[in-house]
Amino acid sequence: MTITEASEKFDISQDTLRYYERIGLIPHVNRTKSGVRDYTEESYEWIELAKCMRLAGVPIETLIEYCALTQQGDSTILSRKELLVEVHKKLMNKMENMTKTLERLNYKIDRYEKAEVTGVLSWDK
């Protein structure tokens, strides 16, 4: 798959794909004889991982570290697991905070909807 096809498939700009390659988030991308990128299934998996993690707010530095550890082989299994456990903890904390924020927003929206009907804005529960 070319960079154009990968860009369209994953809804990621070509510049972002090149950047991910340059910093090691997409390890070794094959090239055709004419120098055109030729993404493989393995490349797709790295692209999907990078996109998923970035959408969740995982820092680039963490992903770079994870990819570097992966390329070092099985001797880094424990380190990779520890890194992923730490990412998991941070995401769980973020989700809890977002849940609290959504609950607060739902309450406020509910109060405003009632105020539209009654003409009176009240913050009593």
What is the topological layout?
Blueprint: H1 3-10, H2 14-23, E1 30-31, E2 37-38, H3 41-55, H4 60-71, H5 77-118
Antiparallel strand pairs: 1-2
Helix pairs in contact: 4-5
What does this protein look like?
The chain is mostly helical. It folds into two domains: 1-58, Multidrug-efflux Transporter Regulator, Chain: A, Domain 2 (Orthogonal Bundle), CATH 1.10.1660.10; 72-125, no CATH class. 70% of the residues lie in helices and 3% in strands. The chain has five helices and two strands, in the order ααββααα. It has helices at 3-10, 14-23, 41-55, 60-71, 77-118; strands spanning 30-31, 37-38. Helix 4 (60-71) runs antiparallel to helix 5. It is elongated. GO terms for molecular function: DNA binding; DNA-binding transcription factor activity. Residues 88-115 form a coiled coil. Keywords: Coiled coil. This is MerR family transcriptional regulator.
Q: In CATH terms, what is the fold-level topology of the largest domain? A: Multidrug-efflux Transporter Regulator, Chain: A, Domain 2
Strand content: under 5%
Query: Could you give the count of β-strands?
Result: 2
Sheet with the most strands, sense and barrel status: 2 strands, antiparallel
Strand order of the largest sheet: 1-2
CATH class of the largest domain: Mainly Alpha
As for the number of domains, it is 2
The total of helices stands at 5
Mean pLDDT: 95
Q: What is the N-to-C succession of helices and strands? A: HHEEHHH
- List low-pLDDT spans: none
